[in-house]
Every structure is written in C-alpha cells, then in structure tokens.
Predict the 3D structure of the following.
Amino acid sequence: MKRLLVACLFAAAGCEGLQRLNVSSMTGGRLDGVDLGKVAKGVNQARKGFAEISESEEYFIGRAVSAQVLSRYKPLNDPGLNAYAQKVMQAVALASDRPATFRGYHLQVLDSAEINAFAAPGGFIFVTKGMLELVRSEDELAGVLAHEVAHVAKKHGLKTIQTSRLTSAFTIIGSEAAKNYTPQQVTQLTSAFEGAVEDVVNKLVVNGYSRDKEYEADKFGAQYVKAANYDPGALKGFLARMQKAEGSGGGGMFKTHPSPAKRETELGSVSPGPAYKRSSERGRRFSAAVQL
C-alpha cells in the first residue's frame, strides 16, 4: 500500500514507475536509486486542492481506494458477466463529458448480496451481485452504471478529500528548495495520502456522498444514457423497484444514498432520444449475461 501511495505522489512529476519501488529502501534522499529531488524539479509551485490533482495522480489515488474496496468485498468469479457489464459501462462512458481517464474506465462485479455500487477516482467502478439481481434490462443497467460514471466525471470522490491533507503534501512535493526528501518528509507524504484515501473510502462505503452530488450523478447519468441511445426512463423504473426493496434493509445504497423515491422525484421527466428503438438483441444478451 505504501508503494502505491508514494507512486501517487510523484506520478505527475514524471516518475510513475515509482509504483514498483520500495519505500523502505530510501536513503539520503534517494529511493532505489531514484533522486526524489530531481523527480520534483518539474513541479514549479505548491498546489492547494483537489482541482489541481493531475489525471495520473487521480488514477493512483483511485487504485489505492480500489484496493481498500476489494479488501472489504470479494470479486465475483464470473468473467462473462464482468465483461458484459464492462461493455455497457464503456458505452455510457464514451457518451459522457469525460469519455476517457488516465488509463481508462474499469469495472468489477463484487460477490455481495448488498445492493450497492461504487465509483473510485480515476474510473474504477464496482457493482455488487445484489445490485445486478435487481436490474431487469440492459437499459436499467446502463442507468445504474452511468450514475457511477457521472461520479467519476464530476470528480466527486476527489472533492471528499480534506484540503489540508493535499495542501501539506503538495507543499512538500512542490518545494524547489527540497532537493532531497528526508525519511520524515516521505513519511509525511505517505500519511497525507493515506488520509486522502481514507476520506474517499469513507464517503463511498460508510457515509455516502451528499444529496446534491447524488442528484447530480442521476441528472448527468440520465444524459449519458440518452446520448448512448439507451432509455433514461429505465432508471426511474429501477428506482421504483429499489423503493420496494428498501424495506428489506441490508445497508448498501439504502444507507448511503437518498431514498429511491426522492431520487426519482429529483430526476424529473426523462425520455429517450429520437433515434432510440427497443432492441430484442439487448434483451437476449442481458438475459444471457445476467444469470444470477
């Protein structure tokens, strides 16, 4: 985990290969033969907040967040289902206002009965088996995944990181005077980004995003679905089904999201684009892939 966090710190300075190096081997401002002062030389001034995180840094933060998610949830061993869900996600991502991330969007189905989905910074998306069991069509699945793509596109995960953590880390990285990083400075950097990862994980898994961010993800998700030639109205049908399932408890989205009924109301009237046609082929491939 520390190797990954330190990689995140220096990725924007042109040393993404640092992810493979061992923090414990640092001596005299060098890390496995890499002069950290030279790594930071290209950073001319300290940055202050999430808006100044580069796409490569976002990717490494997302990887660290994903590692935490996968420490809590087991991946589902179903390559066919995972590939199918990945293709649907890519379709809506390509139709979004952020069609590409640093190393692309990635999806993993989780082996959990909990009804939930997560989107980590950088384009890492997770959906549970329980969520897929509630979905009835490819259009509904597109709506669910477009909501998560919207969280990535609007950088909701990065916005949860405490500004103080980033200010501290970027001040050290951007210091022209710091030609060599001491073990204490690397410890401070690692601590800051460990805290940043914890901030994001707590929002995704424990507390959930604020209501305005969830409504924003629904709104933009519906736009992405429509642009990808799916029916955005299918999401409202899914939310109505979620409302019926809410009484069963079980945490997940019911604990971290606004009520499905409220989300449905906030979403308002939505309709497919003029080129939309119902597809029996979509129905067949959905039924073939989602056999849970």
